[in-house]
Amino acid sequence: MTGLVWCAASFIEGRPPLGGGALVFGDFGNQSIPFLAYYRDVLTGHADGNLLFAWGMGYGQSFWPTFTMYLANPLNLLVLAFGRLSVVDAAATVAICTAMTSAAAMASLLQKLRREDRVLAVALASAYGCCQYAVNDASYQPMWLVGVAALPLMVLSAIWVRDRSRLGWLTPVVFFTCWFSDFYTSWMASLAAGLVVITLCVAQPAAWPHPIRTIVRWAALAGLGVAMDSFSIVPTYLAVKRSAMTPNVPFEAGTARDLASRLLMGTEGLGRAPSIGVGVLLGMLLLVAVVLTWRERLTRTLVITLALTLLSMRWSVTSTVWHGFDTPDGNFYRQAFVFVAMQLLAVWLLLPRLAQRPGKHVLAATAGVAAVFGALVLVSQGSIVTTSVTTPASVALVVLGLVLIPVMVGRGRAAPTVTVCLAALLVGELVANQVAIVDARDTRYAAQTVDLGELRGQGDVVNRIRELESGGSRAGVTVRMTPNDPMLYGGTAATSYTTMMPKDVSDLMAGMGLVTTAGGRRIFSEGSPLEDATFGVDSRVTWSSGRTVVTRVPGATVGRWLGRHPKVTRLDSGRRDPIAFFSAMLNLPLTTPSVTRIRQRGSRTQLQVRCSPGSPLLLVDSQGVSLRSVPTASGFSTRFPWAGRLRSGQLKPGEAADVSFVSRSGSRRQPHMECTAANPSQLGQPAQLRRTGDGFTVTVPPRESAATLLVGTTATSEWTCSTPGNSTTSTGSLNGLLTVVAPSAGTVTCRFSPKGLAAGVAISVLAALVWLGVVGASWRFGGTSIRGRFPRRKAAVSA
User: How far is CA 296 from CA 288, 302, 348, 410, 447, in A?
Assistant: First the structure.
């Protein structure tokens, strides 16, 4: 049912996978889809790198933290069922299947709590998989949907432990799978699952006769499951601490009106107000149940839990706890699915208690709740989260609820038919709600939408890159489709965008004069000849005017021998002078250009610049000025964000370049300009270096014994090099690039291992052995159930 709702909405909206369009929102196109394309290349053996290291991102950087953050969901393996150029449909399918898994998990939990009303269980589970949070906050990043699926599975595992079922031993597997799929939202789901279990223990003491023992055993098994995922958690945690960070944004709870308006249909409030709505019909049903059963212990306990959970989303301290003691970037309400799940569980647990209520009480309660929702519609007028369909659709649903809910709750002859009708209306509400939310969100963030419609016609770019790399080349890619083009097409470039961007890489690219945004996590580059020579890019594949263009860079190699005593200028690590950087790394012959001022209008100055013969490459450093026009070597326009601080353009003989700029702070400062050779040459001598998935192998000739090898990638402490005799060789850094000192003639093998991976693997293995040992001991000495002092329960006690 959830799959049908998502597919119907995608068809109506014209979105993938069934809508035929390729216009996607924000990070779904900039991160999720390119990363999934690279993941497919890794699985099929076409990637320049593996899951630990990606040679293409930022000319080489750690990929394991990015994998654990974005791609660890096992459903991402569905990408193998799609072609390389159909990765947009594959990513959309993964999102839908994850939502379907969430609904299936919730349906299983509901039936475990009470094996009745299967039609209503399907409706509630579908509402969970298609809730506001899933559509508004998580559909553009499928990893946020993992927590939605994890929460009901975690609560279900607690019930297994309570019942002393054999399935209880699978609790570590449940938590391991959830945390490995996405540790961030699984942390939220773990907190929420504990809160739900404690609430049920307090509200239903008969169903949970030994709450403390059950919770302790469940928590111990859950802890083992989380420990088994240490090989993922430890390296990712350490990578976060060493990554480029966006400035902390102060927490803002938003207005109470916007929060209340989210209970209505068709509201969109990504980052403005938490997505707490479960639909107007289910919201009315929940309030009716609360009003009619208020005197009961179960109702009061559930209401208190719901109130505290809602308040926790409006307090800075508790919001920080929900987000793993870290300030979230862009959205403070990623835990909203917790409140949604609690509402649906409350509906399911309270509904059977309404059967004995007098009909007039049910009718009066429904009328009162309808009046409350009607007042809410009036209050929501002018809210920033409402859309054009909010008021009319919500009013219509309130009227329908006023008619149908009393009949369904009354349990008369018409009740089953009305329940089916209510479920059908709910499905229609879910489809309309999803269409309205996505339309409003994409309209509000129109500047952040990504059109990947040309991707299917750019298969030649992918094929040419694969041909070049299969021959050992390091192929650059310049398409300017997304900030992760090397992931989307293959090849390499400085252009990259990930939450786990290493600060070393970000600082190196910023020092080269490239554009770094989002606190350094997003890097843009046009791919200049200076970059190609520095990082050993011997060919560059460009998409221009609807065709593929391949440009060769003669003599460029990834590795270069600098001799025993490299004569290279070492720059101050805190200095960011791109011309000085490339001059040092390429030994550029710089000459001063001829500059003539031809126009001055206010703060805007236009210069005419000429380079001397033999140095036709003009370098312009825009530090301190705002450039309005300057030639570029790549042939692209200089529009933001692709054009960075350093611009380079090749002039024809006798040609003059018009450089227009505006001085900042009212000064008359001119940009720093230099001329150099058209084809920058690399330092030293070429090395026979062969790239592997997570490193490289280099053959050391006798004449280069004890020489320094310069490698075209960022230097980090995560590189280790050794010789066939297992003797370790030293690694270092030269202005941010990796260097290796070859001990003697022969072969040197270097591997990249994310920091903390070895320790994480050791913890994971130990935790798995403890779990297997406990299960084996219980199987050998006490049967396969989770034994204890209290008698084994034959079946779960019904509410």
Answer: 14, 10, 15, 19, 51
